[in-house]
Amino acid sequence: MKALILVGGFGTRLRPLTLTLPKPLVEFGNRPMILHQIEALANAGVTDIVLAVNYRPEIMTAALKKYEKEYNVKIEFSVETEPLGTAGPLKLAEKILGKDDAPFFVLNSDVICDFPLKEMAAFHKAHGGEGTIAVTKVEEPSKYGVIVHKPDHPSRIDRFVEKPIEFVGNRINAGIYILNPTVLNRIELRPTSIEQETFPAIVKDGGLHSFDLEGFWMDVGQPKDFLTGTCLYLSFLTKKGSKKLTPTSEPFVHGGNVMIDPTATIGKNCKIGPNVTIGPNVVVGDGVRLQRCVLLAGTKVKEHAWIKSTIVGWNSTVGRWARLENVSVLGDDVTVGDEIYCNGASVLPHKSIKANVEAPSIIM
Ligand code: GDD
Ligand code: MG
């Protein structure tokens, strides 16, 4: 089978992390976000993956070529010279996606779930329509694409409304599709939106169906959601009894849902968890308290620091007795001084924080 992952966009909502790495390469659960998708596609029998890229393609190509062997898939880069939106990239990759009559998957690169792709493909085949969208329920539908059903049909979509201003429903597009190659005939090679142009057109012809996602789902394209998504993902791993998690028998693990890379070192008398990921080569000093946070590779947390609801960017240093909370995000190579308090600080790469950040703000 074939698949295309939409990897473009500038990832501005995940700044300052995306000032250093393209969004799909930012580690989620200690692995580049996009690896979760490549792995799921490979497990569903996909052999040809197109990565639709426009933002810093050279970094992406270098980082991802090596996964071809690991997952036994062919990864091709389809590079846009101008951002083609969410539909244009499908047309650009028409040679690959349309090479046979079989349907293909399309994934947004920033969504995390259990990826029931095999079930979705079987469902798509069974209803015989032109496309299937995975849907999930959310409490705040306005930042997503909302789908509305025909009252007389369990899965046929009646309306697709991207980012509705008024409430039309709470079942949203989860950013995972399976489409017949005929959809490519509906798309022109220009910047165009699958949500605003292609889906409404298929809906009009009665060919778009929804597939209900079971379990967790999150678009992790912004810091607050990245943290929530991390909690959901770690809980999911706990439920599965995954070996990826640090055993709760470790004396420093508190409340479970903790994932620590084997190369990280943890000091004495720490209290870590629940919902923490600690990346490669991280050094955590004595007496540190960590909860609901992400420490990316190479960070250093000094003694007695207290970190909650925070993403600490690569190679950053958090000082002794520092306190970070309320969706603080440190970019790459940031230094937070001893005893400093950060409340919702978003700190650009290579900065040094020497005074308290009392209220949420961007530090540049
Ligand atoms: N190649 C390419 N080119 N990819 C792009 C471009 C582009 O010009 N613009 C955006 N993308 C990619 C992004 O990298 C992302 O993977 C995907 O397309 C969706 O873009 P986002 O910017 O993340 O959109 P969103 O989160 O506001 O909304 C989308 O996702 C929601 C689910 O998370 C829509 O598909 C909504 O309908 C949906 O509910
Ligand atoms: Mg998104």
Automatic annotation (TrEMBL):
It catalyses: alpha-D-mannose 1-phosphate + GTP + H(+) = GDP-alpha-D-mannose + diphosphate. GO terms for molecular function: GTP binding; mannose-1-phosphate guanylyltransferase (GTP) activity. One of its GO terms (biological process) is cell wall organization or biogenesis. SUPFAM superfamilies: Nucleotide-diphospho-sugar transferases. Pathway: Nucleotide-sugar biosynthesis; GDP-alpha-D-mannose biosynthesis; GDP-alpha-D-mannose from alpha-D-mannose 1-phosphate (GTP route): step 1/1. The keyword Ligase does not apply. GO terms for cellular component: cytoplasm. It is found in: Cytoplasm. Gene3D superfamilies: Hexapeptide repeat proteins, Spore Coat Polysaccharide Biosynthesis Protein SpsA, Chain A. It is an enzyme of class 2 (transferase). Residues 256-363 form the Mannose-1-phosphate guanyltransferase C-terminal domain. Residues 2-232 form the Nucleotidyl transferase domain. Keywords: Cell cycle, Cytoplasm, GTP-binding, Nucleotide-binding, Transferase. Its EC number is 2.7.7.13. Involved in cell wall synthesis where it is required for glycosylation. Involved in cell cycle progression through cell-size checkpoint. Belongs to the transferase hexapeptide repeat family. This is Mannose-1-phosphate guanyltransferase. It comes from Acrodontium crateriforme.
